[in-house]
Amino acid sequence: MAHEDEGRAALEALVKRCVALAKDAGAVVRKVQAGREQGETLDASLKDPEDPRTYLTVADQRAQKVIVDGLRASFPQIEIIGEEDEDEAEDKADSSASSATLDATSTLNKDSEIDLEIPPRGKSEFDAFPADFAEVCVFVDPVDGTREFVEGRIMCSQTLIGVAWRGRPVAGVMGLPFHDGKIGKAAETPSEAAGHCLYGVVGGKLHGLDMEASNDFVSRPTQGDGASEEGVVLASSATVKEPALQKSVACIGAASTIVAGGCGNKVLRLLTGQADVALFNLASSLWDSCATEALLGALSEDAKLTALAGHPIEHVGGPGRALQNRLGVLATGPRFAERGGRTHQELAVRIQALPEVARLYGLEVAEDEEPQALDMVRDVEGNPLTPQDFGKMLGREVTSYRVNESDAVRFKQSAACRIRCSPAGSVFYKRVALRELPYAIFKSKTTPMKLLRDVKSTGVEVAFLNAADTKRFAELAQGCPRLALPYRIDSIPHFDVPLDSRFGIFLPDLCKEDGWEQYPYLPTPLLALTLEALARFHAFYWIEGTPEDSPGRNVAPHLWETGTYWHLGQQPKGQLDLIEGNWARIHKSLGFSEDVRGLGSVVRDLAVEASIRTHGIDQDGKPVQPARREPQTVVHGDSKSPNFLFKAETKEIGLIDFQWSGSGLAATDVAYSIAASCTPESLRDYKVLVDGYYAALMKAFDELGAKTAKIPSREEFEQDFLWAWVDLARIVLADHWKTITPEILAQREGSHGFNAYNKSYDVAHVFVEVTSDLLMQLAKSDAQVDAAMSSSK
């Protein structure tokens, strides 16, 4: 707790310092304005002679020096990125310094006593904010809207200071040098204005939103009768030249447009409610977007700032990092969805489909081509991927690529897409950027334990794919199974704030064009081939009885201590108490027979014993001590039909997704594969399938397994399978079926994204039928099961 308090105190001190320095910078800018009012010529030049938006003045340079020097004096370890060249700013400030300027900055060491609301401890990611400011960067724009300042529209210029942590804006300050104590209030003499400041922490409160009822920065456009214009209002530059922005403006379809130069000035109109949506010009930079994004986030979780395509903008400094927002900026206020009838993300999806926007990513897309999934063609640091990146992976020249929207899928916990390269080849890209996934954000607020579990699971997959023994198995297996070994893996895990974690896995593409097929359900012949592939996997990675340097013992320490996602150690507390109540509802809803009415109580009574026998995990989710048995093998842990691919021509079986791999019983993979992948007919063939698996396992040991491996007898394996099925029935009744209805099953029928018993009414009924049958078999050899069965009747 002390560490948490230190981090929060550090953030508070930094933001308060930034507020004080923004006010000091405002005083410097007003001092320059006072000289203009007295007839002095403004020292101004264009960085780009062809672009009037690139003005540089002595006010920019002096204000930046005040801010940067003040920050470095208090926080020398923080990375600071300012708009102006520091050496030039230093020279200009030194050569132009005067006692008046120094007087204006006399508050440098007197931080204002201001209110600052940070989300409460225990409910905020800022509990993990680093007290030493590691991974923190401050972006400074001393005079945003310099052109406005030079051309006399001084109320439209502002100072922006943004604080980013791990690339995302977390706090922002907007100084308004010429607003006289309130937003939009002008002083009679501009240089004598009191100035004003807005500031806030994301998820906290936007401070300083003080404004008069009506002025040029607050009042919405009106119709002829004086009523407010209906629909959304766009804050835009006077001229929009870039084709991507012109087409984006058309997508917005605003009812009215307010001309607002300067990025901060546009966002100010969103903060006051005068406008609802804004676009930055393509020459804007991270110092324009960092503070403004944070201020919107402090105002409301419904206010957003992203790239045009809807993905986050990474605010990261350092050598070689691009600072320009060349992918565009889209910002919306908190009432945009209400007034426009669509969310920020829905608008971004439309904009993403524009060929002109695709060209910002280096993709030359024709008007009649399929929209591109631009939000996915980025590495984990947010940089657009290039043809050269894919050329290195494929070992050949790649001149261009496509990422068609039809080749992209967005799951709850990851996104994936097929990259089609020219002149030939393709790459499968799995991208896990949790902060970009709505379900991950939801889980961070409701079940943070599960989100941390998700981060660890992706780390497990990375470890498995990178292991030397995995490469060796891929060579020995000869396509049964075929493992898609990665071309490249990018990994940025964060266990203190799991939402910040990002992974990118680039894999060979087992695609339909090359003869690979996926099926939502597996008939008996395909399910038998699947179990044969698993048998070979289990034999190669066998642990029990093998030498210390065996593949299973080598890789297991880097995977889950107990494989699979459904064991009690990976599930929330109290799950067992849900079984009987859920089953009572399911029994009625799905119309099961009276013969199985007591199934819920039987599964509940046996759940703990099944967990101990199958996973060595007790009812509290803890490993049983001492362990009843040594780990048997490495299990896949999520062996369902979507994770198997089939190539008929070569009889290869592709095996993918190793996020839940770890030590366990081979029978857990077998039971889950049958239940999660079957048709009603293949599920009824479970005895044939189990016999086939065991025969394949014995054969695989001769070919791939260690000679000293402790192999279970046929009878021992059958007992493992029976208990593994009971354990699986527990997660189905307690969790997988907690909201299931006939309508949901019908809606999911035939999809690839759910287990067979979770998308087929017929499979669901056969699953219960088989579960009842297996319990009766188990009762013949186990008194505890027999007693549970008897008491349920």
TrEMBL record:
Biased composition (Acidic residues): 82-91
EC supergroup of this enzyme: hydrolase
Enzyme Commission code(s) on record: 3.1.3.7
Gene3D superfamilies assigned: 3.40.190.80, 3.90.1200.10, Fructose-1,6-Bisphosphatase, subunit A, domain 1
Domain of life: Eukaryota
Record bears the keyword Glycoprotein: no
Cofactor(s) for this UniProt protein: Mg(2+)
The entry's keywords: Magnesium, Metal-binding
Bias-annotated ranges (Low complexity): 95-107
GO MF annotation list: 3'(2'),5'-bisphosphate nucleotidase activity; metal ion binding
Record-linked Pfam families: EcKL (PF02958), Inositol_P (PF00459)
Binding site for Mg(2+): 83, 141, 144, 288
SUPFAM superfamilies, per the entry: Carbohydrate phosphatase, Protein kinase-like (PK-like)
Extent of Basic and acidic residues compositional bias: 617-631
Residue ranges of domain CHK kinase-like in the record: 505-703
Region (Disordered): 82-115, 617-638
Family the entry assigns: Belongs to the inositol monophosphatase superfamily.
PANTHER family: 3'(2'),5'-BISPHOSPHATE NUCLEOTIDASE 1
Name of this chain's protein: 3'(2'),5'-bisphosphate nucleotidase
